[in-house]
Amino acid sequence: METQYALVIGLIAAFYVYKVVGGQLKYKRLIKLIESDSAFTLIDVRTSGEYASGHIPGARNIPYESVGDSLKKTAKDGEIVLYCQSGSRARAAKATLAGKGYSNVWNFGGIGQWRGKLEK
Questions:
Q1: Number of C-beta neighbours around residue 74 at 10 A
Q2: Which of 2, 38, 69, 116 has the fewest CB atoms nearer than 10 Å to its CB?
Q3: Domain boundaries, given as residue ranges, for the chain
Q4: Integer Cα distance of 95 and 73 in angstroms
Q5: Tens digits of residue pLDDT in 62-72
């Protein structure tokens, strides 16, 4: 019986880690979101200088340090896609937003995964 409880607790913990840390959004899914005119928020969590050097079209720049306080007008169940230079700041920002009750947040990873032109 204790083994079953441990297994259930382990599965719940693994699911939580996947939702908070995982949840990587693939390139094709981001393109579908953009092309379908779906209501979603695309956020570049890099510094303003990095953002100015080139960003995914339509992305808002909210540096990682500010992301938790800058989305107060965004619905907590609205779809949010984050990216940065390598994916690590986006992963941390995703965890921050999950801790604030945002439930539909995706990490696109690093800007290098973007295959289209960048806006400047």
A1: 14
A2: 2
A3: 2-113
A4: 19
A5: 999 999 889 88
**Residue 55 carries which DSSP code?**
B
What's phi and psi for 11, nearest 5 deg?
Answer: -65, -40
For residue 94, the tally of other CB atoms under 10 A from its CB is 26
Q: Dihedral of the CA atoms 26, 113, 21, 99 (nearest 10)?
A: -100
- C-alpha neighbours within 13 Å on the C-beta side of residue 16: 7
2-113: what fold? Oxidized Rhodanese; domain 1 (3.40.250)
Angle at 41 between CA 35 and CA 43, to 5 degrees: 110
Amino acid letter, 73: K
